[in-house]
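ESCALATION

Customer reports they have been waiting on this structure for their group meeting. Please prioritize. Original submission:
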Amino acid sequence: MILVAGATGELGRAICRQLTEKGGTVYGMVRSSSAPEAVAELEALGVRPVQADLDDADSLREACSGCDAVVSGMTAMGRPGDSIDKVDRDGQLALVDAAAEEGVERFVYMSYSGAIGKDDPLTLAKRAVERTLKHSGMSWTVLRPSYFMETWLSPALGFDVAGGRVRIFGEGRAPISWVARDDVAAFAAAAVDSEEARNATLEIGGPEAIAPLDVVKLFEELAGRRLEVELVSEAELLAAQKAARAPQERSLTALMLAYARGNAVPMEDIAERFDLELTPLRDWAVRQAGDAD
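Update from on-call: job pushed to the front of the queue and completed.
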């Protein structure tokens, strides 16, 4: 049995989908406040919802009871009303403790690239969970994905191809290994019982590293028109980070700064070892263009 924490999120649902396709029993950790439609979607995948509260250690232990593995992608980022301290730090740490107490054998933790951040709230939380997990007594896997295509090449962060205007952080020349959400989910599902992933920290990216300005050229080619490019300089990002007060805002600017400096991840060896075919950015972009038609 496998418990997926953060199951109602985009990544969590993708992980649940991968795990149910492999067979076996998959539980999805939900909260009393979880949207009914999100819970219904999990059930449609064959996932069994189990309610737990990050502030309630007993409920976390109950959720972990009898499970062979836990996969956790919980985060407060992009979720109004949640805090990094409550979810990404204290909640994750409480879940690690509960899993260890219940005898869970493998814990797969969704972190992010080691090249991202330093002393912002989200990075501090993630690195604290990584350290604790490695001394938990369980077998562990830390996944450190690069920048998700679905997030960073979307209107939510200013990359609005349909609107004809895209935002780039930094000069746009530093290559990034953009990674598809489903590929990250595939690594998470594989890590549950992979000897390659046992007690390992895995940096994950897409099959190629592409500079943001080259990404713009790709989308211009597919759209058949020029896009207006807004460059946000590192100086502007540093100023924004200094002025930011909210933890999520400070953490987001740290992510933007790391983007500006690039994040190329060699993937040929690891993809071969896990027998996974990674999604090229062009293929993903073509699908986006098709969906927009």
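Sent to customer with the following note: The CA atoms of residues 11 and 181 lie 6 Å apart.
Escalation resolved.
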